[in-house]
From TrEMBL:
Residues 346-389 are annotated as: Disordered. The keyword Membrane applies. Residues 31-125, 148-230, 235-335 form the Ig-like domain. Coiled coil: none annotated. GO terms for cellular component: neuron projection. This is Lachesin. InterPro entries: Ig-like_dom, Ig-like_dom_sf, Ig-like_fold, Ig_sub, Ig_sub2, Ig_V-set, Neural/epithelial_adhesion.
Amino acid sequence: MKQQKSLKGLTIVSLILLTLVFQVSAESTIPSIGVIANATVDEGDDVYLDCPITNKTAASKVQWFRVLPGYLHISNDGSLVTKNTEKYGVRATTTTSVKQQELNTVTLIIKHASNADVGRYRCRVLISQVSYPRWPSKDAFVSIAAPPMILSVSNTKMVSAVGEDVTLTCRGYGAPEPTITWYKGDAGTNIMGHGEVLHLENLRAGDGGEYRCEVDNGVPPKAMETYHITIEQEPMCSAPQLHVMQAKNIFQPALMTCHVTGYPVPKVSWKRYTIHGIQTIFTSKYDIHNIMPKDNSGVITSVLKVYNVTSSDYGTYICEGTNDIDKCTSEVRLLESRLCVGPRCDSQADPSDSSSDHPRTVTTPSPSDDDDDETQHGQKAPHKDNGGIVMVPSVLTTSVLLLFVFFVTK
Ligand SMILES: *[C@@H]1O[C@H](CO)[C@@H](O)[C@H](O)[C@H]1NC(C)=O
Ligand SMILES: *[C@@H]1O[C@H](CO)[C@@H](O)[C@H](O)[C@H]1NC(C)=O
Ligand SMILES: *[C@@H]1O[C@H](CO)[C@@H](O)[C@H](O)[C@H]1NC(C)=O
């Protein structure tokens, strides 16, 4: 009896050894599973899941399972295990590749797919001499085609300031999995990015407007969401030239410039300080020309033109920019100059010569301001005499001038 027992022990040991040897020899020929494509089908269509196997051995079996929802052993190689032949089918094919290698494909067929068939399926290769954890296995997913839909979005109406960052999100669902594309403006025009998140950094005035996220998976219709971004910026005013000069009474204009930024685009107006307080400028004495921004900079250039400058025009002018958020002001002073300032001075230089500042002509004086300025000694003489009095110094200065010129040229 004791001997029999030890004999039994021996055979068990040798059996274990044998299986070990088999395992080692089987190692070089463990079959492997290639890529199993997920399947998305229209409801009612049949599903085909191909499980491609290389190096299949006689000691192996290719099995299909449904893993989720509910575990179900469907097939072994080319034959069904489940009794549900209405729903399932299986097909095993063998092809020889270019490299003279055998390729076995075991195809699981799910007939008339419905939502109940949506789930996870597994192809596994059972190898009798190899322990279970080393059996190759791969999963594939079956889904019913579903048009894309939008699950959640970030705030679709946003107010932001220039220089800030904004993040828009758009989460979609669909079968197959949809892709998300971001547009500025209408869909299909200006692509801003892809994926669930769109980052907009360092916003500028021109970045405001409509944005769209489009969710598409090839199953119509596409899903779409529209976002509105309003960019706000308080107005800011600046004057490139704080002082503007012009001579009076020479029918020349003075031009004052002001730069205004802000969003929404500010309205620009001009005012001036008067003895009656601050008054808005609007009469035909003035012209206001606003050059609106054409680029992203958003700078409005406003030019105030004061026609035919006279002494009453000198003073301080105020440029004012106003939008929904705030207002800004900037001041420009119009100062008197002795000489004409501006590009049109040459052509209209003559009137300036007759002004009170340069009495250097011999022509008969006219009853102008000059008289008031220069004859301030006592009462005004009668006009005729007055002319004579002025005449004498004029003749004198002219002769002195002539003499001077004579000597200098000699
Ligand atoms: C098939 O087996 C051969 C020899 O054992 C090996 O060289 C090859 O890599 C295997 N192929 C795959 C796809 O595993
Ligand atoms: C199948 O779908 C799953 C889950 O969506 C994914 O992880 C896997 O990579 C897909 N397989 C293929 C071959 O695309
Ligand atoms: C400025 O003066 C010129 C010349 O006298 C005159 O023709 C013009 O109408 C004046 N313009 C305004 C706005 O007063």
